[in-house]
Amino acid sequence: MTALSRFRFLSLAASGLLLASFAAAPLAQSATNDKPLKIGVSAGPYGDILREAAKLSEKQGLKAEIIEFTDWNQPNAALDAGDIDLNNFQHKFYLANQSKARNYKLVALDDSILVPGGIHSRKYTKAADIPNGAKIAIPNDPTNGGRALVLFEKAGLIKLKPDVGIKATVQDVVDNPKKLQIVEIDAAQLARSLDDVAAAFVSSNYAYLAGLDLNKALVPETSNPDAKPYFTLLFAAREDRKDDPRIRKFIEIYRSQPVKDFINGKFKGSIQAAW
């Protein structure tokens, strides 16, 4: 083979490789788009809403798989690890707290739903009836524990340091006239704890699963105007995926009138659309 022939052969080979790489790129992109968008959520009604949105998104060519977790720690861990693409179960303060504590690279996107919690009891119909020395239960994570303590203060059962507000911890209780025992429990277990405690703060998703009615709560969180940011849930994604068009498309479909109608019809005001 002459030098010129070898040059032509190598040029053709290189061209073939280049064309092959260009041809493979759309195939790889297509394979990525064919995979369902994985969306994490805590078990309960939040998942019902996501599944309704997923039905609509599939009609528009975007498949979504809803993955339920049994506690509030797993969805952010899975998101940061890249095991899921998006999650929807938390407010912005919980996201910020976990991201800082665990060095997650996660960002808040659009709001999704309003999910007020409340103080519930299976034994008493009025907070004033809770006896001396009884146990009351709050979530064991900092941001939601503060929400609970503010409501127990509103119920007249404890008093917190001035101006501590929703950032309160058990150490901020300055007056406890009934000498109540404040028990910190994983949020997913609070509804179950009602058989063992006088009252507990239960978030709306777990209250719904346990058949608890917010309208019958000793103190509903809607009675505290400062609490709204703490019961406004949002979508979260990894920083490097925040502008992913598939993620943005799903959120747009979720925040649509058909999904709002589904929320209003199914939950009758106990859960509300945030848009």
CATH superfamily of the largest domain: Periplasmic binding protein-like II
Mean pLDDT: 89
Tell me the total number of β-strands: 13
Q: Outline the low-pLDDT stretches.
A: 3-31
- Please tell me what the overall shape is: globular
Enumerate the strands of the largest sheet in spatial order, edge to edge or round the barrel.
2-1-3-12-4-13
User: What is the helix tally?
Assistant: 8
- Radius of gyration from the alpha-carbon trace, in angstroms: 25 Å
Q: At the first level of CATH, what is the class of the largest domain?
A: Alpha Beta
SSE pattern, N- to C-terminal: HEHEHEHEEEHEEEEHEEHHE
Taking the sheet with the most strands, its summary is: 6 strands, mixed
Integer count of domains? 2
Distance between the termini: 72 Å
Briefly note the CATH topology name of the largest domain. D-Maltodextrin-Binding Protein, domain 2
Known CATH architecture of the largest domain = 3-Layer(aba) Sandwich
Question: How would you classify the helix and strand content by structural class?
Answer: alpha/beta
Give the percentage of residues in beta strands: 15-25%
Short overview:
The chain has 275 residues and is an alpha/beta fold. It has 2 domains: 35-114 and 230-273, Periplasmic binding protein-like II (D-Maltodextrin-Binding Protein, domain 2, 3-Layer(aba) Sandwich); 118-226, Periplasmic binding protein-like II (D-Maltodextrin-Binding Protein, domain 2), CATH 3.40.190.10. It has 8 helices and 13 strands.
Draw up the topology in text.
Blueprint: H1 3-34, E1 37-42, H2 45-59, E2 64-69, H3 74-81, E3 86-90, H4 92-102, E4 106-114, E5 118-120, E6 135-139, H5 142-154, E7 159-160, E8 173-175, E9 181-185, E10 199-202, H6 204-209, E11 219-220, E12 232-238, H7 245-254, H8 257-267, E13 272-273
Parallel strand pairs: 1-2, 1-3, 6-9, 6-10
Antiparallel strand pairs: 3-12, 4-12, 4-13, 5-10, 5-11, 7-8
